[in-house]
Amino acid sequence: MTSRHDVDAVVLDIEGTTSATGFVVDVLYPYSRSRFAALLAERGDDPDVARAVAQVREEIGDPDADAARVEKALNAWLDDDRKATPLKTLQGVIWSEGFARGDLVSHFYDDVVPALRAWHTAGVRLYVYSSGSVSAQRAWFANSPEGDLTSLVSGLYDTENAGPKQEAESYRRIAGATGHAPDRLLFLSDRPGELDAARAAGWHAVGIRRPGEPYYEQGVGDHAQAGTFDEIDISTSGSSA
C-alpha cells in the first residue's frame, strides 16, 4: 500500500532504512575495531580524535585513561552496539579513510538510490540523520556502488550536532537548522522509538520494514509503514521553506 505525503523534505536514517544493518555490523564494525589502536597511536593529536578520546574518558569516569583503556571501552561499546558519540566519531574517521583508500564501498538497498534521485529531481530536499557521525555519513554517500551521491543531500545530522535519535528535541533542532516547518518534514526509519520522537516534534514519519532487519518483527507501532521506498509517494504541493 502506497504511503502518500505532502512535504518539502525527507530525512533519512541509514541502518535498516537506506542500507542493510548487516553490512554495517559485518563489514564496517570489524574494520573499525581492527584500526582503533593505530588511530589512537598515530592521530591522537587530531582535533576530532582528541575530542572523542576526552569524551570516552569522561564517559568511563577515568580522566587519565591511556590509549589501551580507551580502546577497551570502544570495543566494549561496539560489542553492545551502543550509540556512543565518541565511538561514532572515531569510527567515522576510520571509515572515511577506508572509503578514501578504496577498502570500503557502502551499501544501499536497490530501491533507495532511484527514489532519492527522483525525489531530488522533483525538488524534495534530502537530509540524513543517523547515529553514525557526519564524517561517516559523508563517506557513505560519497562512496556508493553507484558513485558519489552527496549532491543529492542537503545536510547531515548525527547525535553530536542534533542530539539523541529518540528525543523529540533533536528533531526540533533539525527542523530549525534546515528552515523547514515540522509538518513539512518526513522522517524515514526502521526504529519505532525514533519515529515516535519525530512525530512528537510535529513531523511526518514512515516506518521502513525490510525482512531480515533487526526491527522487522517488532514492527513500527501505529506509524505508516513501507517495505521499500517505492511505496512512498511524495509531493511538494505545499509552500517551500
List strands and helices in order, with pairings.
Blueprint: E1 3-6, E2 9-12, H1 21-33, H2 36-42, H3 47-60, H4 67-79, H5 85-101, H6 112-121, E3 125-129, H7 134-142, E4 155-157, H8 168-178, E5 185-189, H9 192-200, E6 204-208, E7 224-226, E8 232-235
Parallel strand pairs: 1-8, 2-3, 2-5, 3-4, 5-6, 6-7
What does this structure look like?
It is a single chain. The protein is of the alpha/beta class. It folds into two domains: 146 residues, 3-Layer(aba) Sandwich (Rossmann fold); 77 residues, Transcription Termination Factor Rho, Rna-binding Domain, Chain A, Domain 1, CATH 1.10.720. The protein has nine helices and eight strands. The strands form two sheets. It has a six-stranded parallel β-sheet, sandwiched between helices. Helix 5 packs parallel to helix 7 and helix 8 packs across helix 9. The two termini are 29 Å apart.
CATH-defined topology of the largest domain: Rossmann fold
**Gap between N and C termini:** 29 Å
Number of strands: 8
What's the overall geometry? globular
Considering the chains and any ligands shown, give keywords for the structure.
Transcription Termination Factor Rho, Rna-binding Domain, Chain A, Domain 1, 2 domains, 6-stranded parallel β-sheet, 241 residues, alpha/beta, 8 strands, globular, Rossmann fold, single chain
